[in-house]
Amino acid sequence: GAGVSQSPRYKVAKRGQDVALRCDPISGHVSLFWYQQALGQGPEFLTYFQNEAQLDKSGLPSDRFFAERPEGSVSTLKIQRTQQEDSAVYLCASSLTWSSGNEQFFGPGTRLTVL
Amino acid sequence: AQTVTQSQPEMSVQEAETVTLSCTYDTSENNYYLFWYKQPPSRQMILVIRQEAYKQQNATENRFSVNFQKAAKSFSLKISDSQLGDTAMYFCALMDSNYQLIWGAGTKLIIKP
User: Fold this and answer.
1) pLDDT per residue over A14-57, tens digit each?
2) What one-character-per-residue DSSP string does A49-61 give?
3) Residues with Cβ < 8 Å from B42, sequence gap 6 or more?
């Protein structure tokens, strides 16, 4: 594929449900990032992978949030027992290498609404 | 802790005019990168321009240029000859050695015909 893709684009969940958000990075990109963007705000860092290794998960808001990238390509962000405050757009980005300063290429995001 | 501040929630200019978006930041590191990203309505985030902190020369990309003032920790974006397609949210972001992007709250830019 030409760019980063995310699925689903929209997800509505009832409070307490588990959700899984998928990210397909650009082929060959080593680094993968997840961000949370609340309505009207800038994105906030959640977690970062270099290949299959999760190097930083300091931004995950609670232990209900879990991310994985088992084969170093596709990544899944899982949210257990969703709460209304989890409603946001979840952005995935990838970059070619792990070098600081590299451009991050973003997907279209998954808009999660928790009722 | 690193912070990025964008003090202009919304701006609007006429097509073909020049507009400057403001950004200030705070970091204790000497080596870092600054970015401006554009997020058009219902479309994905794309990079506009990037500046390396150790380079004194201001970055330029066609109609887009920055005024990087390291001592003042200021990083403004100038858009010349603005076009209707420039209408978007613009985010200033800082990246340090942790590879995290720290983002400002964004400026909504409207280009009027």
Assistant:
1) 999 999 999 999 999 999 999 999 988 999 999 999 999 999 99
2) EETTEEEE-TT--
3) none
Exposed / middle / buried, residue B52 (Cβ in 10 Å: 0-12, 13-18, 19+): middle
Supply A24's token pair: 């397909």
Show the tokens assigned to A29: 């990109």
Contact partners, residue A90, CB within 8 Å, separation at least 6: A6, A21, A34, A35, A36, A37, A46, A77, A109, A110, A112
**B105 closest CA partner among B58, B57, B37:** B37
Residue A97 to residue A92: CA distance in whole angstroms? 16
* Record: contact A101-B33, CB cut-off 8 A: yes
In chain B, which residues have their Cβ closer than 8 Å to the Cβ of A93?
45
Cβ neighbours of B10 (radius 10 Å): 10
If residue B74 lies in a helix (H) or strand (E), which one and from where to where? Answer: strand B74-79
Measured from the Cβ of residue A29, the count of other Cβ atoms closer than 10 Å reads 19
CB proximity B36 to A under 8 Å: no
Q: Which residue has the tokens 């709460």?
A: A83
Over residues A1-15, the pLDDT tens digits come to 579 999 999 999 999
Q: Which residue of A has its CA nearest to B95?
A: A101
